[in-house]
Amino acid sequence: MALVSINELPENILLEVFTHAPARQLLRCRLVCSLWRDLIDLVTLWKRKCLREGFITEDWDQPVADWKVFYFLCSLRRNLLRNPCAEEDLTSWQIDSNGGDEWRVESLPGDHGTDFPDSKVKKMCLKSQLVDLKAEGYWEDLLDTFQPEIEVKDWFAARADCGCTYRIRVQLVSENYIVLASFEPPPVTIDQWNSAEWTEVSHTFSDYPSGVRHILFQHGGKDTQFWAGWYGPRVTNSSIIITPKMTRDRGPLHGSA
């Protein structure tokens, strides 16, 4: 019986095979031959993979500039901050400044506090963290050519019986730790005898310079009464999420292992 080349399969069958293949392997397979390259670059293939992975539904009607990029960014999409609600105490967080009675992890709502809007969030603390984007699976071409949006969020609240000042700084940093873009709003001061309500802070980085390889997330503050104990701002549910843009097309995507 004569051996049959995989390229002799009908193109729709070969396309179905590629739909089930690992995405990063497909980027390498583009180099096999012109037929494979053309099939792997088809919008149909990456739209099928998005549907198969549950990134979209059958009735999806939003515009997508590059389905291949959209697939990879959706597959990598998650909170890049580890232990964001301090469920594992201060694991993965670095303490940059530890004045007063130092940082502490508390269970919500805490003394003179209020419940967090999301009932799944149970812990809070003050902390900082550096995210290595390459270690998290984002390669240079994906970051530099397509510039996906980087969404940053944080939540803070004061104790009802004590005023405090809250501050946050998020920086996009190069391989050599040069700051390329920064989000650092003015500190927020809350008066004593407040409602202890939770406030969300959010910022989206877009159209930032090429060369971003790390993200520095830093937040904290202090109480305004200078009491002994833990009376500064409470923070929790922090997040850094990289999400695809759906309105821009910048050419073919080339991956790296």
UniProtKB/TrEMBL annotation:
A matching Pfam family: F-box-like
Alphabetized UniProt keyword annotations: Ubl conjugation pathway
FBA domain mapped to chain residues: 70-244
InterPro entries: F-box-assoc_dom, F-box-like_dom_sf, F-box_dom, F-box_only, Galactose-bd-like_sf
Span of domain F-box: 3-49
GO cellular component terms attached to this protein's record: endoplasmic reticulum quality control compartment; SCF ubiquitin ligase complex
Molecular-function GO terms, alphabetical: ubiquitin protein ligase activity
Alphabetical GO biological process terms: ERAD pathway; glycoprotein catabolic process; SCF-dependent proteasomal ubiquitin-dependent protein catabolic process
Pathway(s): Protein modification; protein ubiquitination
Record's protein name: F-box only protein 6 isoform X2
Phylogenetic lineage: Eukaryota, Metazoa, Chordata, Craniata, Vertebrata
Record gene name: LOC111154886
